[in-house]
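A quick word before the example. In earlier lectures we treated sequence and structure as two separate objects. From today on, think of them as two lines of the same record. Here is Glycosyl transferase family 1 domain-containing protein written that way.
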Amino acid sequence: MRPLRIGYVGGHSAKVNERVIDDQWTAYLGEYTDLVRIPPFVFIRLFGGSINKWMRRFPDGLDELGEGLRRVCAKYDVQVLYMNLPMMIPFLLMARNYKQLDLSILFMAHSVASPFWLKQWIGITPFLTDRDILLTSTRSCKRALTNIAPVYESATEIPLCIGMRNTAPSEAAEQRILAISRLENVKNIDALLSCFFRVREQVPGAKLTIAGEFTGSQQQISEYKQMLEELMDRYELHQAVEFVGPKTGEAKDQLFSAASLLVNFSTDPGETFGFNLLEAKVWGLPVVCTNWDGFQELVSPDEDGLLVDCSWNGEKPCIDLEQAAQACVRLLTDSRLQRQLSEGARKNALLYDYRVIMPKIVQTVEAHLALSGRIENKLPLESVATTPLRELPHIYDIERLKPSGWLHETPLSILSLESAEPLAEWMSRVKPLIRHFAGEGMIYAQH
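And the structure line, produced from the sequence above:
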């Protein structure tokens, strides 16, 4: 029997964390399918070198884009495209539907409510069909998507996966906390420093390693670096905290092996899973993290980690830093608890072994391919693409999208919309979509 043949965009994300996850995921997928690398420029050429230029020709460019997509699929002999270039997904779906191509698009929800991704989901909504395979890593993520539009009820919940380690990690030689993430305000590195100051009052020998790259605009990066430097000075943490930059491969492994626990205080509106929490499981490393979005499903309290309360009664989510500090202190000073959570972490990591997860993904793709046949345009494609969202209540959840301020935009125009709102303003705009990220008193259980 011929193995499932899937084409994918053979490029790499500029962001370290996205690159690591996608490279691992495609490597695992390649063990279970005939994975065909298609150079990124092949897709870029479909748009004449520029998506924005193509958009200015809409709808005249639809036929040309559809024919180009047909030729690409024929050349590489694929019926499924794994699209890890998200900005192209709405347009390829649109062109596929227009030409009624025998093609399925496979893609993942790595984020929902970041400014970039929310625009993509709004643009994707009218053109998603039963042939397409959308994977969400958590129930919380899927709920956020369905708050945008009911069509996302068709998404399949399958978590991200990872390879297992053959040996158990050695015990850390010192009381060292590790944090790995993008360095920006939604990741709450400033709150982490404030928390660590509290930890040091009870565990004077504690150390903190912060790994990751600063992200955002140059102004945002400059302002956030200054804020963190001021906190380092105020709390006199320069001898106890080190920023080591982005790490991958063996250098990243060394960070995990030297740590006593991992912390993640993210309240990122785009957060869906928390891959470094999964990496920690593989290392048998307990975690302390916010009770936020997919973290609630990935971490089992008192089994492989500790969750910290995160309320959202004001403009932005608020972390209980005193509770966070006490959780860190418990794990740094209670060797029995740390061993218990470490054993639980390694045990629970097996649930995310790629040898368990990837066959489920292949089965899901094959089930969608069984629907092979004529793509029916349930809605007038060109009209929907150029109709304001406020006139599409049969497609979108208009009430939840109203605070976004985008109801005058169309599914097409929103894709080129520039937005650079301050964090507090943006969080209030997307709160109706992701209020449940802060828990609402509910703890999701993965196990």
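Notice the following. Residues 72 and 437 are 39 Å apart (CA to CA). We will return to this example when we discuss secondary structure assignment.
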